[in-house]
Task: inverse folding
């Protein structure tokens, strides 16, 4: 079991140093088998980011740190790329802030991949594909379409895609299916794209570290809806590796 510590910046919350001290005190009392897996923090400018990373220091040595990239905080990705001492620091993005602006999410994902950093996606990713209230404007991005986008970006090392990723993130797809060996998706107007289990696992291990949802049941229930019926399919009782890889890491 793992625990995630996320900095709080609402009115009345303790300052960063106090929150860090509390996190350390809690971590020091954790029973065997439970660990701190990730630290998440925010920064309004380069100076604040440097200061906070320095405060973490050896307190949580070996624990991955992710800095949240908000609108207008492009300095975070550039700053991380320029400093070798920050090699273990990744980027967190709140996806609900990019609904309707999928091109910006694509740009962030590509920038992170180009700099060989890791990524966390947070906020509302509890449906397979975007849930739409108005035509062309999804309320929430889909976690499966977002994971496929991450696999594509990681494999391409952030190179341009001529609009395919934006269309995928918008949920403009004809079909998505998976089996033991691969997942395939057909974006409208494009040929079918296929991603092997190994490709997905590589993207989860080395690029997209986690995604978040307000529900554990909803994502897994929807994922099961596209998993072949083991009793009536050629897959028999075999383990569906692709589905397992999609959800095996932290959410």
Result:
């Amino acid at each position: 079991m793992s625990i995630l510590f996320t900095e709080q910046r609402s009115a009345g919350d303790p300052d960063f140093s106090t929150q860090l001290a509390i996190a350390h005190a809690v971590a020091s009392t954790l029973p065997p088998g439970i660990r701190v897996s990730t630290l998440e923090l925010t920064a309004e400018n380069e100076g604040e980011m440097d200061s906070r990373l320095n405060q973490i220091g050896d307190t949580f040595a070996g624990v991955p740190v992710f800095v949240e990239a908000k609108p207008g905080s492009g300095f975070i990705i550039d700053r991380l790329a320029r400093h070798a001492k920050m090699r273990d620091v990744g980027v967190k993005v709140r996806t609900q802030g990019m609904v309707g602006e999928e091109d910006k999410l694509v740009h962030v994902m590509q920038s992170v991949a180009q700099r060989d950093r890791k990524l966390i996606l947070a906020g509302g990713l509890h449906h397979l594909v975007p849930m739409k209230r108005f035509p062309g404007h999804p309320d929430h991005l889909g976690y499966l379409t977002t994971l496929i986008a991450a696999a594509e970006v990681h494999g391409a090392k952030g190179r341009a895609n001529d609009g395919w990723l934006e269309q995928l993130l918008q949920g403009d797809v004809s079909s998505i299916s998976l089996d033991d060996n691969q997942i395939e998706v057909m974006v409208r107007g494009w040929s079918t794209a296929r991603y092997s289990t190994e490709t997905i696992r590589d993207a989860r291990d080395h690029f997209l570290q986690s995604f978040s949802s307000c529900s554990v049941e909803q994502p897994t229930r929807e994922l099961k809806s596209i998993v072949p019926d083991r009793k009536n399919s050629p897959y028999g009782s075999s383990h569906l590796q692709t589905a397992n890889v999609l959800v095996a890491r932290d959410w």
In short: The radius of gyration is 19 Å. Residues 232-240 have pLDDT under 50 and may be disordered. The chain has two domains: 1-63, 64-248. DSSP finds nine helices and eleven strands in the chain.
